Amino acid sequence: MGMHRVRRRWRLGVLTALSIRLGAVVAGAPAQAPVPPAAPARSCAEMETFLKTARIGPQRDLPVGVTAPSRATLDDGSFQHDAAIQTIDERKTTFQGNRGMELNFRDSWQFNVAGYELAKLLELNMVPPYVQRRVKNTDASVTWWVNDAMMERDRVRKNLTPPDPQRWNDEMHASRLFHVLIGDSDFNQTNTLIAPDWRVWMIDFTRAFRLIKSLDYAKEVTRVDRKLYANLRGLRREVLQERLGTWLTKAEIDAVLGRKDLLVRALEAQIASRGEAVFYELPRVGEPCGTGLQ
Fold first, then answer.
1. Where are the domains of the chain?
2. Is residue 123 within 8 Å of 285, Cβ to Cβ?
3. 3-class state of residue 117 by DSSP
4. pTM for the whole thing?
């Protein structure tokens, strides 16, 4: 499962190409019926407490990835659930990546927790809970394992068609906006998980929160959930500092706000040109945090 990363950057342009046209059928792959999501068995707050306090069992390496992520079963005495653990925390003056030369490069577990907290501020229930925890005397991010999920990479390889193309496209639009906002330089098909109910979950942000204040793919952010747009516009420095300051520097928060302002301007231009056609309603925005996770 894709709770790890492949160091091959997945361009957002590819994500656009993978969006499913309404009514389209992929040859050789019958659509699968969606499973209605159950109400969250635990709230996000309860999942966070479990991830922070439950006993961590033996860790086993995940088969893909260069940052040495691991998987472990957590047990609080009455309940067991798996989690992914990442301890990567690297800084380099220069780094040659798929985007070219990057200055002040940082690859850190801390961005996982910051990404989750930012998704909560946006009321976007598309990121499973991440917490900070000491694991074997090392600071780490520990995240709720998305049971029985497949990676987007596997969906593409198997030619599987989402059963509800409209919902799929709507979730892809929200995912695209979020990754642009956080400046994720390593967004790829292993970092998008698809649950059995076909809900999309975004994971692994260790190379996000870059210092750039420009948008690489602003033209691909063409539609937005109305509530998500309002929440995006409402992001304020003092709130980000309070909620994300443990894991992000001032410069990283400044960059988030810079990209937020550019996103808002890009969407304002879309609204001026296309009006109400820009907006859609996505149930994943504003629903109880953790809905769909078991």
1. 12-25+33-280
2. yes
3. helix
4. 0.87
